[in-house]
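Repro:
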Amino acid sequence: MAAELVEAKNMVMSFRVSDLQMLLGFVGRSKSGLKHELVTRALQLVQFDCSPEVFKKIKELYETRYAKKSSEVAQPQPQQHRSPEALSIHSSYDRGSTVARTSISTTNIDYPALYGKYLNGLGRLPPKVAKPEVRLVKLPFYTTLDELLKPTELVPQNNEKLQESPCIFALTPRQVELIRNSRELQPGVKSVQVVLRICYTDTSSPQEDQYPPNIAVKVNHSYCSVPGYYPSNKPGVEPKRPCRPINLTHLMYLSAATNRITVTWGNYGKSYSVGLYLVRQMTSAELLQRLKTIGIKHPELCKALVKEKLRLDPDSEIATTGVRVSLICPLVKMRLSVPCRAETCAHLQCFDAVFYLQMNEKKPTWMCPVCDKPAPYDQLIIDGLLSKILTECEDADEIEYLVDGSWCPIRAEKERSCSPQCPILVLGSSDVNGLLPTPNGNGENGKPTADVVDLTLDSSSSEEEEEEDEEEDDDDEGPQPKRRCSYEKGLVSAC
């Protein structure tokens, strides 16, 4: 076995860039980089995963390059009846054994990070017939910089329920520099991170992150924290766990040293795949700025959409003359600042992009708060027409779109709700018996209104007030003149 390893390494050392790329592509690893990076990548493959398939592929690539040359060397010596395969392998060993042993025996080989290798069967080589690969959904808050390990199936090694799958990889100097020079999102958390993503092994469509049961992740000698469960307020409903990328950066060696990651998981029948990525984590403010740059829909296009919604349907018996749209965000009940909705939504009502992105940064659901349908980030648009309306209409909380695409504010109902609908009784008034007469005896719309009685006044106080009022009236009028009786003519007084 040791001789085969040395032989394979010698053949790899003599490969050209195209041969190295074919070898790395055969095992599903990255083919990008300079020649010395490809060589170290291939040497790491031989060192840690020299399976019969890999060894056979290396021999095939070597024969393709040296078969013609070896046959020319073999022609002058017909007495040696050796096969071309044996000739090519032994000749390569004779030519490069001294140089190769010297270079491989050194301990300063800088193994790059792009090739994680699971030792317990996790990175098993694909068959010659290419299988569909597991794909993970793109996450708006994570921009992928490098793929350190393609999604690889977690393969159980025995019948135990609890399985362990280790992975060994190292970072390149460029990747280490990216991490060290990145800004801090919060103390101890860099924006450039090495993350672990886990999903179901399903090649039919891009998969969302999904943790297996009893998951635990160990990086080098320390366990990494995994998001816990959200408590459920509903009885009988199991709590849910937010499945997100797991940040491993703070526990890794930011050098050329090899990092070891061990994933512990429960084997309960379902198949899972894991992948390692170098990503840049974005904030909600950055996503909002990007949306303002590329996601604004022109007001004329929004106006055409309004006309389309209100267009007369000949098959319908009901004609829609207008549609109301609130200027209040349904998420936080505040006035909209950046009106936003998904292109897939059928409604014209918008929500505030600022709060929507902030909420999904904390708990990613990407569901429209208006219609409760998926509203992913790449489907969001900013309504240019409603943005213009918000700047022109500052004293109304609701508008109405009309059939021709125009709009008008809705203020009348609000003002009418503020006007009194019945007479207001002022306590402590000097009206007799606490009654408030209505002019002409009629209320609104010519209807008689009921008298309003002040129940705080008792009978005694009302009588006293009447007497006081009469005395005041007497004083105001002054002394009354004497009465004179009018006599008819011809009558004489008895006095």
